[in-house]
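Tutorial, part two.
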Amino acid sequence: MGKIRKLTEKEYEKYSSLWDGEIRPELIEKWKEELLAGRRIIFLYEENEEILGEAALVLEPPVSEEKTEPQVSVARMMVREEYRSRGIGGALVEVLLREAEKMGCTQLTARIPVNNEQALRLYRRKGFDSQQFRGKDESGDYVVLLARLDEPREQEEEGVFSYYFASRAMLIAAAVFLLGSMVLGPFRYTELSVAFGAASGILSLAGLGFGFASWDEET
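Running the prediction step on this input gives:
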């Protein structure tokens, strides 16, 4: 099980080195300035001190003197490709929502590429159910979704759980039952051996089913 924590200012140089060749240097410098100014909050998802995912909020000044609430949006949410479909993205979005609520914000926006169906499903499931804008830039079509934080919403259980974990658990259990069947066979515990073998087959099929389901699961 991993943990989510805030990135400190002192760690930024080491953290930004992960983007070598992926993010434009001027953009990395801009993010650093925002972090030092307190306008960017970065969260890291780690397992065994390795960064598997990250998410960030960016704060903009109020749009007018009448509205004193800062404008807050999801600036970045990313999970490393080989660790997707494990619920990490959902856990990160949940942290962003809670952080925005702590700051007294009544809404949070997120900009998502139209062709990223997994991200769209994830954000909508987390309460980003109001489309504010649809546009197009050099990267393609995108939508801006809004979550209202001043309205009650269902709270999900803490932790990261997904079809991915269910698949792994089923396949491990299947291997244990198969081993048990092989051990019992030579000692002529035929009925028990057959039962263990049947259980192994059922668990294997269930594990494969959860595995296929995890392909379409949110990050």
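The radius of gyration is 22 Å. In part three we will examine how such features are distributed along the chain.
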